[in-house]
Design a protein that fits this description.
By secondary structure, the protein is mostly helical. Helices cover 59% and strands 0% of the residues.
């Protein structure tokens, strides 16, 4: 029988887990923007570094615009179960060994109430990106033997 979780294209950043990010998104009933933002936030250390954080930021910014424009409503307003999502967040942290800062941002993106919660998540991811950029070697750096 075909199992989508047994296949991964373009890397090993999901580590072949039986329960993967897309399972988290479906189980937590996240919207498109929350799902994309958390995907890039979850994988940035294993795949594309600061570029993935920039993608997460972009999705959060768009989500904030939509919320402020009245086009998207809180995951809680869409019927998300806070207790169930808290359990799913704990599972995600354990399965992927998610560091505290990323976990807090993912939590905010999963159980957000208003644009302020999303702005808090945006600030966390922006700080992570600034740190990732600062840690990257510059193009002018050449390793000496």
């Amino acid at each position: 029988m075909y199992k989508a979780n047994s296949i991964q294209h373009g890397g090993k950043h999901y580590g072949g887990h039986d329960w993967q990010h897309w399972d988290f998104v479906a189980d937590a009933r996240l919207g498109y923007f929350e799902g994309c933002a958390t995907k890039y936030l979850l994988r940035w250390r294993e795949k594309n570094g600061a570029e993935d954080l920039a993608k997460s930021i972009h999705f959060i910014q768009k989500l904030i615009e939509l919320v402020k424009g009245g086009k998207v409503y809180s995951n809680l307003d869409r019927g998300a179960d806070v207790l169930r999502n808290s359990e799913l967040l704990y599972k995600l942290k354990e399965v992927y060994n998610v560091p505290d800062a990323e976990h807090l941002a993912i939590r905010l993106l999963t159980i957000w109430h208003d644009a302020d919660d999303l702005a808090h998540a945006l600030a966390i991811v922006s700080r992570l990106r600034a740190g990732a950029i600062a840690a990257e070697p510059t193009a002018a750096y050449v390793e000496q033997d």
